């Protein structure tokens, strides 16, 4: 959502705000904010790496012609495990897919 809606927000800051609000109930969250920030940075890096890889694959496939459903499944299997296929399709620039498309 951050990228899609061009939000100027840092998820680690949101976690810090929540930790401050919940400190009395869950003090351990505040104690581990550095680790949380590190995890979020790793996940953010993985997201952008996957996005770059998918873009390169898409460019190659588009230069070769139409993209079949089988090819989209192959893309998903090769580089995008753990993400929903709708997120992958949107990542690749396909915005008009829904559950009835498959």
UniProtKB/TrEMBL annotation:
Record Pfam families: tRNA-synt_2c
Domain Alanyl-tRNA synthetase class IIc N-terminal, first and last residues per copy: 8-78
GO BP annotation list: alanyl-tRNA aminoacylation
Single GO molecular function: alanine-tRNA ligase activity
A GO CC term assigned to this protein in UniProt: cytoplasm
Record InterPro entries: Ala-tRNA-ligase_IIc_anticod-bd, Ala-tRNA-synth_IIc_N
Protein name: Alanyl-tRNA synthetase class IIc N-terminal domain-containing protein
Gene source species: marine sediment metagenome
Phylogenetic lineage: unclassified sequences, metagenomes, ecological metagenomes
